DNA sequence: AAATTATTTTAGATTTGCCTAAATTTTGCT
DNA sequence: AGCAAAATTTAGGCAAATCTAAAATAATTT
């Protein structure tokens, strides 16, 4: 059993590896992600190395061991299942759930998360569209496009998720009725500033900058 | 915002005051309840006194301040609401819920507990029959009897709760179909050893020692 | 009212997770 | 290759929460 601090380091490393696509995470990036000093990171990764959750070579960053990766995936699973619970059962808006899930994910009980999974009917994606690992740590993949890359007029899409989880961004999307499961139609695409003119499910016309559209994930139809 | 350790001390003190009916809790009893040394208790109660949650007079134990009592009641509320959730929604048996609620009760979010309360439809009693304080910290009382004190033949009762939360005791009651909401009928009372012969809801005949019956709370009808 | 016992507090350490500053090592650049 | 910059580790310290042992105080018994 790991402490909350140790678990948060694992999550930070997972997030870095996911974002950079690399196999190793540097002390610097971990410190940045955790909001701590590099010295603290060195202390902690040495400890997690001793617990055989991280492969650590002095001066060359860390990678996950098999057990470290599985532990991280379990944390991601717990976090996203709790987010799903908060959103679908307790009606929390999607900009409020992350912070609470950050606490709930550290509750230690395998049976709890298994029963929660069953209670929620084994959801595959969280309220932000991120995949939820199953008990074995495997994700369900799906083809998805970044709205910002789509330019075809009159084409219709279903929102799948978002790439930014920024609270204000999510609230803004709420105000535009752009949420997972909602429909969007491209009315116009402006190649000069890469902005879109969209129609939402409520037939409202929306003008969206590429700053926004690049953070929205959709599928056709 | 208090640390988990600080919160657990408040709960321990609450439990002692409830059990002893006294206004002050001694260092010794707190240490016993927490499973720590008296020295640790002295350190902590001095800290909680500085935070104005406890009234503390050196060598004479502690009592709650108004804020300390409210904080404790909020913790009891969270604990019991989570237990109710685990039992009624996730189908955990009543002997498993306490341990998990001990973790969940420390999640910090007032909105979370308010929404959970609403989701569960404002339950007044937890799965062990203990009252759940409302948002203002007030309990709903009800008249209840200790089964061990009841001797009248052929009288019928509804189980309301239990006074011991021991896991093995609860499992034993499960095996006898003695659970909150279930009916019980007194077939015989033996004054010599104070044992009861009962009939449960499944029409099974049960012989119950006073050791057991003294831990069961019931109401008439 | 002493003396003994029980309880509580103080003193001094330990562990965890964090910090800053200094030393070391690697990396990038001319 | 050599030097400067960047990253990392080490050293030393701090706060929280714990411990054991010793000292102080209160309660009980004679
Ligand atoms: Mn999240
Ligand atoms: Mn999410
Ligand atoms: Mn409980
Ligand atoms: Mn309970």
What does this structure look like?
Two copies of one chain form a homodimer. Chain A contains eight helices and eight strands. The longest helix of chain A is centred in the middle third of the chain and has 23 residues, at 66-88. In chain A, the strands form two sheets. A six-stranded antiparallel beta sheet of chain A has the order 3-8-4-5-6-7. A two-stranded antiparallel sheet of chain A has the order 1-2. With 221 residues, chain A is an alpha+beta fold. In chain A, helix 4 (66-88) crosses helix 5 (97-104). The mean pLDDT of chain A is 97. Bound molecules: manganese (II) ion (4 copies). Chain A binds a DNA duplex (30 and 30 nucleotides) through residues 3, 5, 26-28, 36-44, 46-47, 58-61.
Please give a quick description of this structure.
Chain A has helices at 4-20, 27-34, 38-50, 66-88, 97-104, 110-119, 167-175, 210-213; strands spanning 54-56, 62-64, 145-146, 156-162, 183-190, 195-200, 205-208, 216-220. Chain A has 221 residues and is α+β, with helices and mostly antiparallel strands. Chain A starts with a helix and ends with a strand.
String of helices and strands of chain A? HHHEEHHHEEHEEEHE
Low-confidence parts of chain A, pLDDT < 50 over ≥5 residues?
none
Structural class designation of chain A: alpha+beta
Mean pLDDT of chain A: 97
Distance between the termini of chain A: 45 Å
